[in-house]
Amino acid sequence: MLAHLPPVLRELQLPLRLRLWDGKEVQFGPDPTVTMVVKDPGLVSLLVNPSLDTLGAAYVEGRLELEGPILEVIRVGDALTEALISSEDNGAPPEYAAHDKDTDAKAISYHYDLSNDFYQLWLDREMVYSCAYFPTGSEDLDTAQAAKLHLLCRKLRLKAGEYLLDVGCGWGGLARFAAREYGVRVFGITLSREQLALGRERVKAEGLERQVELELLDYRDLPQDGRFDKAVSVGMFEHVGHANLLGYCQRLFGAVRDGGLIMNHGITARHPDGRPVPRGAGEFIDRYVFPHGELPHLSTMVAQLSLAGLEVVDVESLRLHYARTLELWSGNLEARLEQAAQLVPEQALRIWRLYLAGCSHAFQKGWINLHQILALKPHPDGSHELPWSRADIYA
């Protein structure tokens, strides 16, 4: 079996050991840090032309075991596939279909209704499931997530008494924070019943029922009477789909008053046409992690916001911040694997181990990005209410 492996594997000098089902081993470099245990003989032929999707799927399905630190597993797997297959960066642009409410609701439920207790194992204490912000790079996760929430609120120039719309509110961490720290009223929406239940519990526990209202609602059903002063959308537009982006932006436009601000914080694609992450990583994410997820390029998102009548006034990349966030999430999960195994099925735990570490690697390598895009709805005369500089954000 081992004779059929491509000679280039030995030339790579990877810190990788291959162990077969019969105990035979081969090393592809000195001092292996990762061991790939092949339990299914049919997988040997896969190593001739492996992709991150096929390797990941084999691990998720239990046909392959991976031994070693999970971040190192990802790094070695990336080097292996890069040497043996093309990057696929020159492929044809993908085709996108419109999302309907039922499709989106099922996709959100698949990912977010897994287990609240599972997410609590590795998220920060507020359960903020999005990119943190590290002012110096040395902050712990709780501090960095609080800094991110402050950054969002300051960019929105929140003032006491204002009415904030939170689209894709998750477990309500941002909604509660904005109400508590900035004195605003918040209306948050989600499609996850598990998130909604825990979010409402936490709102009640903090005595914020008069300020924070969380509802199970699709963004397409948002009121269009301009009742909100500001709107924030964190980790949401990745689920909307390219074909629906303009409608999504139009719903945000209709929800806020003239002069209102809208913050879109989300993952963006490396390529302008939004093609998936290369060498099968994008296919793995779509199959196992975020079904029907589509990452728009920054230029696409700016264009759709503009077409909806909004004016983009500020853009910031937090790519390396997300790499660090995911590294900390992954470390938290790895430290609690025994507890996690009691909360979710084995296959789900395998998926999440690869997903968190793999996405940290993807952001570190620049395969994907994270942008905060601040837009405003101008007054009819073209005026707006923003300060003349950004100094107030960091004061």
From TrEMBL:
It is an enzyme of class 2 (transferase). It comes from the Bacteria. GO terms for biological process: methylation. Its EC number is 2.1.1.-. One of its GO terms (molecular function) is methyltransferase activity. Residues 12-76 form the DUF7884 domain. Keywords: Lipid metabolism, Methyltransferase, S-adenosyl-L-methionine, Transferase. It holds the Pfam family CMAS. NCBIfam families: cyclopro_CfaB. Belongs to the CFA/CMAS family. This is Class I SAM-dependent methyltransferase. It comes from Metapseudomonas boanensis.
